[in-house]
């Protein structure tokens, strides 16, 4: 198989979908890897490092897309990239189709096969390809929140951990999954007063067992969210429904009642955001102020630390990329059943139930379609 890796073009995105280690693994199995020149520069991986492991360096994204049987990316394809996709070509990346209906329509028109990192799901609900970036996003969510709480950056002028004799900031985290747990760890480590809300009692019990009261946990419901958010200095939204749009758990009315200069960090913005007042921002312009509350809703938070993020992501995605290259889509799904839920679109069909429901489109069971794909 020919595997292509283009340079990411989403604003502020400096990650790359493969490391030299990944190139070596694919080449040693007899596959051909083509990489756009300078694709890894943002992650401090240079063309010569890829070439040394057997990659071919191509001059343009057009050349990569035209050559490749499977395209590996990090973020959802931008319009110029979608235009280069072709029928039957495999795209393996974060797709977030529920939050991008125009992208979904374009993908369906292209006839490509879209496999989304964020919906690959193990028995029990674990999301192995989302987890490493959720860890990064959670930790950076707290870091960004602390930064924008500073007066010079629009916040209330509060030090997250306070000092002796002065109360620390109150940090409310909605969601106790991978991102929320990592955000809580960072906030507690900095000395903040931390409250985590979730509907899953097991996740709250796990946090309580680890932190023994250092982090407070509450069962999540609309009234409790309203009460906690109104009192918070920093609110981090870390809610996830795999493949589906994030629920809007903080209303605009509640935002209006928050403290002046409080900060909202919406980690769920990739799936549409979990605050009614959220709109996606970029690393170049990461915040806006609405109702005297600072909103941080960058759509690719881990892109700010691309070296760390690239290696963490490739560690998780490489086994699946190898399986897809070695066995084709149907064969890889047979070996790794969790890839079945990673499938979002096959040709003109939406094949993930939550994605189809969020987009208001018909769902097609992928099993029969897989049987028609080339081996």
List the helices and strands and how they pair.
Elements: E1 2-5, H1 20-28, E2 32-36, H2 47-52, E3 56-58, H3 61-67, E4 70-72, H4 79-82, E5 90-93, H5 101-110, E6 113-116, H6 131-148, E7 170-174, H7 178-189, E8 193-198, H8 201-211, E9 215-219, H9 222-231, E10 234-237, H10 252-256, E11 263-266, E12 287-290, E13 293-296, H11 306-335, H12 339-342, E14 343-346, E15 349-350, H13 353-359, H14 366-372
Parallel strand pairs: 1-2, 1-4, 2-3, 4-5, 5-6, 7-8, 7-10, 8-9, 10-11, 11-13
Antiparallel strand pairs: 6-14, 12-13, 14-15
Helix pairs in contact: 6-7
Summarize the structure.
The protein has 375 residues and is an alpha/beta fold. The chain is built from 14 helices and 15 strands.
What does it look like?
With 375 residues, this protein is of the alpha/beta class. The protein folds into 2 domains: 187 residues, NAD(P)-binding Rossmann-like Domain (Rossmann fold); 174 residues, 3-Layer(aba) Sandwich (Rossmann fold), CATH 3.40.50. It is built from 14 helices and 15 strands. It has an 8-stranded mixed sheet with strand order 3-2-1-4-5-6-14-15, sandwiched between helices. Strands 9-8-7-10-11-13-12 form a 7-stranded mixed sheet, with helices on both faces. Strand 10, helix 10 and strand 11 form a beta-alpha-beta unit. The radius of gyration is 21 Å and the shape is globular. The termini are close together.
């Amino acid at each position: 198989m020919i595997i292509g890796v283009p340079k990411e073009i989403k604003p502020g995105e400096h990650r790359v979908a493969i490391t030299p280690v990944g190139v070596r693994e694919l080449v040693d199995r007899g596959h051909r890897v083509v990489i756009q020149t300078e694709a890894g520069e943002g992650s401090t991986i240079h063309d010569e490092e890829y070439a040394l492991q057997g990659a071919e360096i191509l001059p343009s994204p057009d050349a990569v897309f035209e050559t490749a049987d499977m395209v590996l990316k990090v973020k959802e394809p931008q319009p110029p990239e979608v235009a280069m996709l072709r029928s039957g070509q495999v795209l393996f990346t974060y797709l977030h189709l529920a939050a991008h209906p125009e992208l979904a329509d374009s993908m369906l028109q292209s006839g490509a096969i879209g496999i989304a990192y964020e919906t690959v799901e193990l028995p029990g609900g674990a999301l192995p390809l989302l987890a490493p970036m959720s860890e990064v996003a959670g930790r950076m969510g707290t870091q960004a929140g602390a930064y924008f709480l500073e007066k010079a950056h629009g916040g209330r002028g509060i030090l997250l951990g306070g000092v002796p004799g002065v109360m620390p900031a109150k940090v409310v985290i909605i969601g106790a999954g991978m991102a929320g747990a990592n955000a809580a760890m960072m906030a507690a480590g900095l000395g903040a007063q931390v409250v985590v809300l979730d509907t899953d009692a097991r996740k709250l019990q796990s946090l309580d067992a680890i932190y023994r009261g250092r982090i407070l946990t509450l069962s999540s419901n609309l009234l409790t969210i309203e009460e906690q958010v109104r009192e918070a200095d920093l609110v981090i939204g870390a809610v996830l429904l795999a493949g589906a749009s994030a629920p809007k758990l903080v209303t605009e009315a509640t935002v209006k009642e928050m403290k002046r200069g409080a900060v909202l960090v919406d980690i769920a913005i990739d799936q549409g955001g979990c605050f009614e007042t959220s709109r996606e921002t970029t690393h170049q312009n990461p915040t806006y102020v609405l109702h005297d509350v600072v909103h941080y809703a960058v759509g690719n938070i881990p892109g700010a630390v691309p070296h760390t993020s690239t290696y963490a992501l490739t560690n998780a995605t490489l086994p699946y990329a190898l399986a897809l290259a070695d066995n084709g889509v149907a064969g890889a799904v047979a070996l790794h059943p969790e890839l079945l839920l990673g499938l979002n679109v096959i040709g003109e069909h939406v094949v993930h139930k939550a994605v189809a429901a969020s987009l208001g489109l018909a769902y097609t069971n992928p099993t029969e379609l897989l049987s028609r794909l080339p081996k």
